[in-house]
Amino acid sequence: MIQLEGLTKRYGEKLAVDDLTFTVRPGLVTGFLGPNGAGKSTTMRMVLGLDHPTSGDVRIDGRHYDRLKDPLKCIGALLDAKAVHGGRSAFNHLLCLAQSNGIPTSRVHEVLDTVGLSAVARKKTRGFSLGMGQRLGIAAALLGDPRILMFDEPVNGLDPEGIHWIRTLMKSLAAQGRTVFVSSHLMSEIALTADHLVVIGQGRLLADTSMTDFIQQNSRSYVRIRSPQREQLLDLLREAGITVVETGSGALEVDGGKAELIGELAARHRLVLHELSTQQASLEEAFMRLTAQTVEYHAHTDAPAGAWAGEFPRQEWGTDWKRGT
Asked: What is the pTM of this model?
């Protein structure tokens, strides 16, 4: 279990983390979401004692990280896959970590096999691809067989097989009763993996709830209907007191409606339906809606085409070139 109480971090005038209070519980995969610059990495660094909070407290199973006797046996973390000495082999990198925490050498072989790096165990890590580096970082997190695991962007650089593997791994670890805390910008992966969500924006807590409740609370649900007898159906729904939205695509939408009731109504009046489906926003749509006012870095798509193409005024460029300037 990871417990944060009023956790706050300032860097000069910049308030990176603002009074965060939440608990990451065992038996669940908890997704940690927020826009760029929201304070996610800073929060994870404070959990591990890499940054010290300006105020507030964070504890791992009731203790501060620096009070853990053998920290890798309590919490394993992947924050930066590149934080490896390039002159060491994968095996020796893990062996150093194991020896520092009283972990037997046999465990190094086990985790290398688990992440699929046994064949390159003796190769120096400077030649590793991004995906191989991620696998090595995950091996380091698993090394102490910890009760708590924390991953920052774990699928970065992994191929589809690797993404499926880490997704299955995190679910299995949570099913064993472990605490799994994962940050990612890939909403599709969080949607498939996480049971619970913690969302922050500009360092502040925006949501701490289940995946299902988060989507329901931050999105629009509606029933979409298509019929070749569109006008008769439209009149029927309005006569029944059902508010209908007409779309440009020819479909009808009923906010918060129940598909079963609409289907039964159409059947009683012998109206043909080509589509009757309940629509729910995706995690990405719900996330965008909740965090819209906390995004620090905004990209723009209305820049002149020449700006993207790197074009310069033709006359000035030609004049300068002729002058040799």
From this structure: 0.78
